[in-house]
Structure formats: C-alpha cells, structure tokens
Amino acid sequence: MKYKDIADRIIQDIQSEKLESGQRMPSLRQLTKQLGVSMTTALNSYRALEELGWLVSYPKSGFYVSTFSSNENQPELPQFKSRKAPVSISNKADSYDDRSHTSGPLGVSQVCPDNIPLTEIKAYIRQTVQRGDALLHTYPNPQGSTRFRDALATHFSKNGFPLSANELCISSGCMDAIRMAVLATTQVGDAVGISSPCFNGLLKLLASMSRKVVEIPCTSEGLDLDQIEQRLKNKEINAGLFSSSFMNPHGISLSIEQKQRLASLANKYRTPIIEDDVYGELGHENLYPLPVKHWDTNGYVIWCSSVSKTLSSGLRIGWCAPGRYLDKCIDICASERLGHNELIQLSIASLINAGQYQSHVQRIRKTSLSNANAYRTLLLENLPEGSAVSAPKGGLVLWVQTPNLDPERFRQLIKDADIDIRFGPQFTTKKLYKDCFRLNFGWSLSNHYDSNRTIEDALLQITQIVKTARV
C-alpha cells in the first residue's frame, strides 16, 4: 500500500466525520502494524496530510486531525466580496476609538501573560548584566546587536527561511519596523496599497505619516492580486503593505502560489512591498509558513516581524529584512535613536540560542489552537442563526460576522458592559464591516476577564448583546 493511498483513505474518513476534528491519530508504530506498511510509508502519509492541512503534528505528542481541516466547506465562515476601492486618506478608523475604555484580554491581540516564559527572560537579563556592564554605558549599533541578528538568522534558517545577520535591521517592535520601511520607501502624500479589512494600527500609522491608502479586497481566496497588478501597472500605488499569513483581523493566509506572485509583482514593477509577518510563527499546525520575502529576488520585499506576539509586546524589539532599502533603514535608526536596547537584544538572543524560544513558540501554537477551537465552538453555539466566525490556521484573532447588527447600538452596549473588543469599522477607511467585530483568543476560556467574570462569561455576554443589538 502506497503512502498516497493511506493519505486518501484518511482524508475520506475525516470528510465523512469518522475521524473527528482534534482527534489524536494512531502513532506511527500503530499505523505500521495496522496496515502492514513500513515506518517510512507511514511517516510519508502523515507528512503529506500535514502539508495539505488535514493533520497537525506536535513534538513528543503525535499527529492530530486539524481543527480547521475542512474550512472550505463550512458555511459559517465570514463572507468577503471583491470590489474596487478609490484612493482614500487613512483616518476613518480613528472615529471608533475610545481612549477612556480600558483594554482587555479580548480586545488587545496578545497571548496570556501566564504563557510568557518570564522566569527564563529574567534569568537571561540578569546573566547579560553580570557578563559586563559596558553595554549599559555605550550606544548600541544602529543596525542592532550582531549577536541578536545572528540568533534571529539561525532561528529562521532552521525553520526553512534562510537569512543572514547582515540582512537584518533591529527596531522597536514590528510596527516600528513597518514605520521605518514606510519612511524608507515613500513620501508624504504617496498612496500605499493595503488589504481590506486591515489592522487598525496600520491605518493609524499611515494616517499619522500622511500617506494615502488603497484598500485591496481580501476574499476567502486571498488578496485580489489581479487588482494589485493593475494598480501597480497604472502607478496608482507607490508601495504595498500586506500580511501574508494569518492576517489581522480576518485570519486569512495567502497560498504559496499567491506569495510567489506577490513577490514577483514587487520585482516586476520595482515597487516596494512591506510584509507584516508578526503572526507568522503562530501557525496552529506547528509549521512556520514561508513569507513573501522568501521568493524575493531583487530586494523589493521588506519583511517585518517581532517578538511582540510570541513573547511580549513590552520587550519592544522587532526587526526587518529591508533588502535593497537596508542602508536607508540603518540611516533612519542612526538619525532617530542611535540604536535599540542592547540589553534586551542580548537577553533574547540567549533565549533563542538555548532553544527555549523555539520550545516556547511550539507550546504557544498548541495553546492557541485549543483556544481558537473553544472560542469558535462557544460563539457558533450561542450567536444568532446566520452568524459566522473565522477559522484561522494561526495568529491570535477571530473575525466575527453577524447579520442585521446595529453597529452603534452594539458598540454602546459593549461599552456599557465594560468589555473591550474591536469593531469592524475600525479596520477600514470605508463604510464597511459594520456587521463584524474582532476578538483576541490568547487567553483560555477559564482565564479571568476581570475580577467578576471569566473569559467564557464575557464571551457569552457578547453573544447576548449581539442578539439585543440586531435590527
């Protein structure tokens, strides 16, 4: 029996629900005995299913049926329409901000602090200080610590994305890396292509930098690359700013073919594409999806990321691989700050070099998968009929769409309930996504939302508010 035959049979069992979502598969040893095949054949069948998204593997645990293996056939997924939008100024999202409202675990996209390896981080900070205090009395390298850049390059190379330390420039988080990239590639008044919906933080950033935006629709099949090419061909956009894996807020990822084409378009039209890959390491299937940058041949793709989502946003360390714009980014760092916190850079480098960062990321992936599945199940069981919830294969956020929602009433009721979430209109400069909202699933349902409620309590309260706020 060939491994493809075994894989096809397992797919049939999943589709017919003989194998349930999240179910643990027989071990490789069990499979060889059951089917009378070699260990190599058994492994190849599981690996093939993993690559296709039907199975998920976890070190020292085994293979499991992917929670989202049949997303394409699920009617309860949010629907996205393709359209052509004019150039606009990125300021619409600001009208939905409420600075007096306290941020909560469902609103801010991050992992639960309980899951941060705080003990290890503190230990490496102490070790770094004890090794010598010279770094506390000198300005750091504007490009970033060589040791930290070496650690990052080794880490991503081991995950199938070869990098060299000289390609990287360190920043104060992913947003700062993106800001540097925008400064290095565009001028005030230039138009930047973005996905729609788009993370509201990016809309704010572009507005603060007086850049115009062109919203490129993103459907369940990914970005409208034909429209991107037409915009590039007509010179309607001066740069692009896109995520390619687990996009915030709707969780969609581009296929390998789409990533290749986006890189090809950047090089063909000699237009910079800034890639926000802050969620890239948080794939639920224990695999780092290669970014668009991997297929960049002439340095027009600027890859940006950080440890803000995998470790802690408070560390304020990120990076970019600017390609042909490296010198400009280094000059920006040198002119603005004379470098970034070297104590934190060296401490994180030690965490990476010890292998503890990789182990931590693997744990977070597994926890996030469990959380996402639990949130999605609770929401679909309690929201009004016709509601839809995204089923991302990574990241930290869910995109919820519910019909006949009165956005203003919904927003006010959520505020009155002292719950922090993000509303659909915050993710666009147009009058769109009024029936949507975004939730962070970095906390488990049993975690406390506040002193009186668990996360589960807060989610159930949201579903009741949705029912009340319908027109």
Short description:
With about 475 residues, this protein is α/β, with parallel strands linked by helices.
Total beta-strand segments: 15
Provide the succession of SSEs: HHHEEEHHEHEHEEHEHEEEHHHEEHEEH
* Share of β-strand residues: 5-15%
Note the gap between the termini.
Answer: 57 Å
Q: Note the quaternary state here.
A: single chain
Unreliable stretches:
92-96
Give the overall pLDDT as a whole number: 88
Radius of gyration: 23 Å
- Backbone structural class: alpha/beta
Structural account:
The protein is α/β, with parallel strands linked by helices and 471 residues long. Helices cover 38% and strands 13% of the residues. Helix 6 packs across helix 10 and helix 12 packs parallel to helix 14. About 1% of the residues have low confidence.
Question: What is the secondary structure topology, with strand pairs?
Answer:
Blueprint: H1 3-15, H2 28-35, H3 39-51, E1 55-58, E2 62-65, E3 88-89, H4 118-130, H5 146-158, E4 169-171, H6 174-185, E5 191-196, H7 200-208, E6 212-219, E7 222-223, H8 225-233, E8 239-242, H9 256-268, E9 273-276, E10 301-306, E11 318-321, H10 326-336, H11 342-353, H12 356-382, E12 388-389, E13 397-401, H13 407-416, E14 422-423, E15 436-440, H14 455-468
Parallel strand pairs: 5-6, 5-8, 8-9, 9-10
Antiparallel strand pairs: 1-2, 3-6, 4-11, 6-7, 10-11, 12-13, 13-15, 14-15
Helix pairs in contact: 1-3, 2-3, 4-11, 5-11, 6-10, 8-9, 12-14
